[in-house]
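Lay summary

Proteins are chains of building blocks that fold into shapes. Our project writes down both the chain and a compact code for its shape. Here are two examples, one after the other.
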Amino acid sequence: MTEDSQRNFRSVYYEKVGFRGVEEKKSLEILLKDDRLDTEKLCTFSQRFPLPSMYRALVWKVLLGILPPHHESHAKVMMYRKDQYLDVLHALKVIRFVSDATPQVEVYLRMYQLEAGKLPRSPSFPLEPEDEVFLAIAKAMEEMVEDCVDCYWITRCFVNQLNTKYRDSLPQLPKAFEQYLNLEDSRLLSHLKTCSAVSKLPYDLWFKRCFAGCLPESSLQRVWDKVVSGSCKILVFVAVEILLTFKIKVMALNSAEKITKFLENIPQDSSDAIVSKAIDLWHKHCGTPVHSS
């Protein structure tokens, strides 16, 4: 038996007995032992496999630039990050913008606004749409990342990535969604067009909030692994797979309002399967990244 076939046999065996990802976890641990972390290889790994939960926050912090690639600098850099977090929090308390009673996600928003020079004159001012997006992402992130300093920095950098790196791509995603849904199920797309629903689908929930508040965090974090590591296109395939999964229900609805209302509040029990199938669809249409040696 060749080394490759042995590895494949072991992978299939591990998967059957419930140890899916054993070899992938070992591969990641080898990558994380390097004195200087190879961000390209970490990106490739994150694109190909779900990150083990015990390493997710670390890998996200490195890929989002919160931590440098060099291991020996991590403790010192996180100390600076924590000091900055405490300084900004203190400033907000001094000007009475937040208090100990302020919900944590709102604290993160005010910190983000202060650092970006966008703090409104009063906490009672109505929130902007971009603030609502930040809150939705922060609320989901709070369920994924335990430490509040990590949570703030990861949320902040995740939102910045959406607003910079993906700024030109995100508006193109509804069109891509239509294109791939047509390839997967043209009859379903025709039904959406007949109901004048295509332009009224919950694109903001899907593509601006990256499914925060739509999918449970346990499933969502596998989607965000791909977003953090360089692909916002995964969001398109999650949306397509939601439509395919609930095809019978959607085909039975005959108005844009009913379809949109249903898609904004999809049942949560099939979300793991939706994400797994969406990742398969994404690999099918966009290819599988190959490990750089």
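And here is the second example, written the same way.
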Amino acid sequence: MADKTPKEPNAPFATRIDPTKEGLSPEQMHFIRQVELQQWKKKTQQLRTRNVVTGLVIGALVLGIYGYTFYSVSQERIMDEMDEEAKLRRTQGPKNGAN
């Protein structure tokens, strides 16, 4: 199995800092804000795309159900008409012991 623990726990790129507690220069604070803004823009674009795709899928599902409902209702009318014709034929047909 792969070892999931990092090999260098004190790596400088992996440590988190608290900007309020650390003595950072204004340039460093500005750089941090710029990087956070870029990351935020990237994430919001991904979320927006995902939300649009989800909305389209839900909309297609709703339209499919709506269309199928209309289709099934029209089929019921045809079946009702066939039932009425069958009743008429039974009542107009010859009367014998099998009916």
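What can we say about the second shape? The CA atoms of residues 63 and 69 lie 10 Å apart.
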